[in-house]
Amino acid sequence: MHKVAIIGSTGMLGQPVTKAFIEQGFEVSLLVRNSRKASNIFGSAVRLVEGDIKNADSIKELLQEGQDALYLNLSVTPKSRKKDFQPEREGLQTILAVAKQSSVSHIGYLSSLVHFYQGHNGFNWWVFEIKEKAVQSIKESGLSYSIFYPSTFMESFDKGAYRQGNRINLAGNSLFPMYLIAGKDYARQVVKAFTINNGSQDYIVQGLEGFTADEAARIVADNYSKAKIYILKLPMKVLRFLGKFSNTLNYGANIIEALNQYPEKFEAQRTWDLLGKPEITLAEYARNS
Question: Transmembrane ranges (predicted)?
Answer without folding.
Answer: none
